[in-house]
Automatic annotation (TrEMBL):
<keyword id="KW-0808">Transferase</keyword>
<dbReference type="InterPro" id="IPR007554">
    <property type="entry name" value="Glycerophosphate_synth"/>
</dbReference>
<dbReference type="GO" id="GO:0016020">
    <property type="term" value="C:membrane"/>
</dbReference>
<dbReference type="GO" id="GO:0047355">
    <property type="term" value="F:CDP-glycerol glycerophosphotransferase activity"/>
</dbReference>
<dbReference type="Pfam" id="PF04464">
    <property type="entry name" value="Glyphos_transf"/>
</dbReference>
<dbReference type="InterPro" id="IPR043148">
    <property type="entry name" value="TagF_C"/>
</dbReference>
<protein>
    <submittedName>
        <fullName>UDP-glycosyltransferase</fullName>
    </submittedName>
</protein>
Length: 466
């Protein structure tokens, strides 16, 4: 009899990895009965023809946001004190004191943080959160769904969504094994493990060691290294378009060489538009010296600001805008969802660009899969002033300590060097590709093409053991 697995989407961030890749087909071919347990407003049945069970009750306890924020800050305080490292407070967002409601929330949160900023305190705080969520109508609703459909295992596609807590508690209370996939390479040190499950799937040895380091209540035999499906499409050559077809589809100049500028969200890089302007100035200067270059600007999918518009308009002879193919289906950032078509677009942007430039993005690994270099900007802009976040902070984060060498990316630490670095890469005199291969293995594991298969293989092993 086929084992029934609920693939659980608490929000839309997991769609890219687990709905639009070959993940489902691989599991089906391995003999699993797969149902998508869907808490998002994106219909997997209507859009993709998948079996789904929709979660229509989205209630959470009114105190959940306060307790969740307190939990995160308490964990970061524990890490700060335990590892004697000042990086952890930089992961915190400031409190708001605008209006009575925000004043109350902030003061209540700070009181909780004061009570629970210890390893035992964090455990108690997590238990309190679980107690709150068990009292909700959503818990009862999800429990009833599970009792009706009787899955053998629930696979949660991200560990960081508070919307998943009540559903996973319902599964655990019914004795159904639960697995959480740790979604992103920077999530563990940032105290973004919202859920407690029976097992955790992580990208690499590095992430496994981090889970065990930051969460003493997790045991070694609960954590499995699977890789991530995130990069699998880059190895699917059926997505590749010829240069002629791709350039024709997006009205690019076939005679130009293009550099990709991969935009960042406003939190990570609040002055991001000025780095695009710097690249445009470098390209313009090189073109005056005989090069024939252009820029493909691919924005961050969840950035809907107008901050780039003036730079793009002033350099429209150089900058070609190719937006990601994502759909906004709600007002929250995690309701801006990818589409299957964007895999093909990103593949070809990587394939037909000379290299990528950005501020600290994991697109360094997307382009590495196509053997293309990456320039990271790491200098202050003159527009930086009090209240604006300096991008240099990003490179001090824990996940950047995984770099085996500073040569794993080409760092531009001075605006005046940018033109020279661009020219060096174009001439084949400078590249980070070989050094970045080692970093890629550290972060994403040793088998990036087999992550989906590995996940299903380990699920099968867990179900056999249970």
């Amino acid at each position: 009899m086929k084992k029934k697995v609920f693939v659980f989407f608490p929000d839309g961030v997991g769609l890219r990895n687990f709905a639009f890749t070959d993940f489902k087909n691989i599991g089906k071919n391995m003999g699993f009965d797969i149902t998508y347990w869907n808490n998002t407003i994106f219909s997997l049945k209507d859009n993709l023809g998948f079996n789904e069970v929709k979660i229509e009750d989205h209630s959470a306890h009114p105190l959940l946001p306060i307790y969740s924020r307190a939990r995160k800050r308490a964990e970061l305080n524990v890490s700060r004190d335990k590892f004697k490292d000042s990086v952890y407070p930089t992961y915190k967002f400031p409190f708001s004191y605008k209006g009575l409601k925000n004043i109350f929330k902030s003061l209540y949160t700070k009181w909780l943080i004061g009570l629970y900023s210890s390893e035992n305190g964090v455990v108690k705080l997590r238990a309190k959160i679980n107690k709150l969520e068990r009292s909700t109508s959503k818990y009862k609703y999800c429990r009833a769904q599970l009792e009706t459909h009787k899955p053998d295992l629930v696979f949660c596609t991200t560990q960081r969504a508070t919307q998943s807590i009540s559903a996973l508690l319902a599964a655990q209370d019914l004795g159904i094994p639960t697995v959480a996939f740790v979604y992103s390479w920077d999530n563990v040190p940032k105290a973004m493990q919202v859920v407690e499950t029976d097992y955790y799937f992580v990208w690499s040895d590095l992430m496994k060691s981090e889970v065990l380091q930051y969460y003493p209540f997790v045991k070694e035999n609960q954590v499995f290294i699977t890789g991530t499906p995130q990069f699998e499409p880059h190895y699917n050559t059926s997505l590749k378009q010829s240069r002629e077809v791709f350039f024709s589809d997006y009205n690019l100049d076939i005679d130009k060489k293009y550099i990709c500028y991969s935009g960042d969200d406003e939190t990570t890089s609040p002055l991001d538009q000025y780095y695009l302007e710097d690249l445009a100035n470098a390209v313009r200067s090189l073109n005056e010296k005989g090069e024939n270059l252009g820029i493909i600007y691919r924005k961050c999918p969840v950035d809907f600001t107008t901050r780039y518009d003036a730079v793009i308009e002033a350099n429209k002879d150089i900058i070609a805008v190719i937006d990601p193919i994502w759909k906004q289906v709600g007002s929250q950032w995690n309701q801006i969802l990818p589409t299957p078509e964007d895999f093909k677009l990103l593949y070809n942007v990587c394939e037909h660009s000379e290299f990528v430039t950005n501020v600290c993005s994991s697109t360094v690994f997307d382009f590495l899969a196509h053997k293309k270099p990456c320039i990271y900007y790491n200098y202050e802009q003159p527009q930086l002033k009090k209240g604006i976040r300096d991008i240099g902070q990003n490179y001090k984060y824990v996940h950047f300590r995984s770099m085996p060498s500073q040569k794993a990316a080409v760092f531009c630490t001075d605006k005046n060097d940018l033109e020279y670095l661009v020219k060096q890469i174009l001439d084949g005199q400078l590249s980070n590709v070989e050094e970045c291969k080692d970093w890629y293995k550290i972060v994403a594991g040793t088998n990036p093409t087999k992550a989906s298969e590995t996940i299903w293989r380990i699920i099968k092993m867990l179900l056999t053991a249970n």
